[in-house]
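Structure tokens please, single chain.
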Amino acid sequence: MKITAVLALAALTAVTATGATALPAAAAEPATPTYDFSDCPEIPAGVDAAQWKCEVLTATGSLTLGSRTLPELAPMIVTHAEGPMPDGSEGQIFGALRSAPTRVPGSLPSLSLQPEYGGRSDFYSVGNSLGLFTMRFRVQSPLLPHDCTVGRDTPVELRLQRAGDSEWVSKNPPVVRFDAYDDTFSAPAATGCGPLNRLVNHRLGLPRATGNAIRLSATYTFKTYDQLHMANAGQADRLSPSGV
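Here you go.
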């Protein structure tokens, strides 16, 4: 079974009951999960939209980078598209990585790391190997310039391995859950930090060739592009003025 490191953004809609009645209240219907496909990239011209799908993956977990461990990373949302090219070869297009800064414990002055896409990805899996995903970690502090980044010139290369079996959480909509890890990657020094470059690397224990690790718990969902096109067309019809 192909498990791609793609991702699912789940925003559960709360269901509330209002009004008073002398009769027992009926049980509320379960909330229907909704997912954000707004980062789905455009697919190449000439491909079959029914065979291309956009996958949205949400992951939480922990990160050890250099001498620092972030036990609770801010959620990461990764979106990409994949499907067959007209010549029969496999195609992939990266969409976006969205996340927020995570405070680095024990660091003074205050430091945070924000994950960013490193420019290369291959989400096709073979067995428990989940492909390649490169990342950068922007180092944030009021004292640092915006370009201060771990992996700015040489991104961190993650080759995630699935831990245990994947699990179907739902078939409609399709939602798959899995755990993954990589404890073999190297972490380069931070660059672009101005006069504080040496201090930043000292505080983070960088560069470090071994001892780095990332562990993730992830879910992903997907839609084919013909489904996305139908949904977008329906939304456009609802927003069009009557009679136009």
